[in-house]
Specification:
mainly beta; Thrombin, subunit H; six-stranded antiparallel barrel; 1 helix; 7 strands; about 55% strand; globular
Length: about 110
Amino acid sequence: MTERRMARRYDLSLPVNVRLPINREPGTHNGQTRDISTRGVYFMMQKDLAPGTEVDFTLTLPAEITRGTEVFVRAHGRVVRVDKQDDEARETIGVAAVIERYDIIRGEASPI
């Protein structure tokens, strides 16, 4: 298999909050990243999404990673692949999304 990724992936397990801007659903869906790069992210969540779905998500890079204060990353992307996995008690959804744009926010308060 040929590697098609254009950017290096980092194995990072971080909490992620996902919103669906097109559906205008109230609230967020919580998940956990598995890996991330400047062009894409793979995260696990309970909500089933379809490829092509637009997503807004926010994740927090902790001070241990940034060597300073927490850094918030707000991003907009599109789902490119969905992997359904049966966990012991529930189904977990793996979501691969391409990042179309992002903002990095340094500061003390959460931007959510």
